[in-house]
């Protein structure tokens, strides 16, 4: 998941806004129309420093979830995003309240995604290495080769630029996954083919 989505009001980002709208429309068609019991919005504690260098708690807040696909669709809470690594520990935390989780090409993104019962994402590839842990429920990780694996609460995922989709097999339980996404080099195959980012599915 590797597009720096910040602010869609400017002309510069009009194409990104259009792409985002198309993405939301596509995923919405896949979302269950039955409302589900959403998990509580997460609490985020952020530390910082005084001007004199003493450690402090900079904030302690509940992060509202972004539900772009309606109450029966997936929900997202983005905690932090940086366009570069090393990350600055003095710049203000960016406002990421109403954006899909996307990782800048040379940066990081940290947040959670909730998948509704019977919910699924489209097949997609991100130019990132994704470190993930299932916090609640269970998720099916499906690859474009047809292979699938179930990952359950307390289990981990290292996703390395593969074309994939997420499927919540439960009809009752919302699945919550924590993601730390790191911008990665594009994968180049032996014949020189570069595996590009896909947003709504593999190219036909």
Automatic annotation (TrEMBL):
Biased composition (Low complexity): 10-21
PANTHER family on file: CUPIN TYPE-2 DOMAIN-CONTAINING PROTEIN, SLR2101 PROTEIN
SUPFAM superfamilies: RmlC-like cupins (SSF51182)
Gene3D superfamilies tied to this protein: Jelly Rolls (2.60.120.10)
Region (Disordered): 1-21
The name this protein goes by in its record: Cupin type-2 domain-containing protein
InterPro entries: Cupin_2, OryJ/VirC-like, RmlC-like_jellyroll, RmlC_Cupin_sf
Transmembrane parts of this sequence: none
CDD domains: cupin_BLL6423-like
Domain Cupin type-2 positions: 113-180
């Amino acid at each position: 998941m590797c597009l720096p989505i910040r602010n869609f009001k400017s002309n510069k980002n009009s194409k990104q806004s259009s792409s985002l709208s198309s993405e939301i429309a596509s995923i919405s068609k896949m979302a269950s129309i039955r409302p589900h019991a959403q998990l509580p919005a997460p609490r985020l504690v952020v530390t910082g420093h005084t001007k004199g260098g003493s450690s402090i708690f900079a904030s302690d807040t509940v992060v509202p979830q972004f539900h772009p696909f309606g109450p029966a669709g997936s929900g997202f809470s983005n905690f932090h995003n940086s366009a570069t690594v090393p990350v600055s520990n003095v710049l203000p935390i960016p406002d990421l309240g109403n954006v899909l989780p996307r990782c800048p090409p040379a940066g990081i993104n940290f947040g959670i995604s909730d998948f509704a019962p019977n919910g699924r994402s489209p097949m997609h590839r991100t130019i990132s290495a994704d470190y993930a842990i299932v916090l609640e429920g269970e998720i099916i990780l499906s690859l474009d080769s047809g292979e699938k694996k179930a990952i359950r609460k307390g289990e981990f995922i290292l996703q390395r630029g593969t074309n994939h989709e997420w499927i919540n097999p439960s009809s009752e339980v919302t699945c919550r996954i924590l993601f730390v996404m790191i911008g990665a080099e594009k994968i180049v195959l032996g014949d020189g083919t570069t595996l590009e980012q896909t947003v709504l599915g593999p190219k036909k």
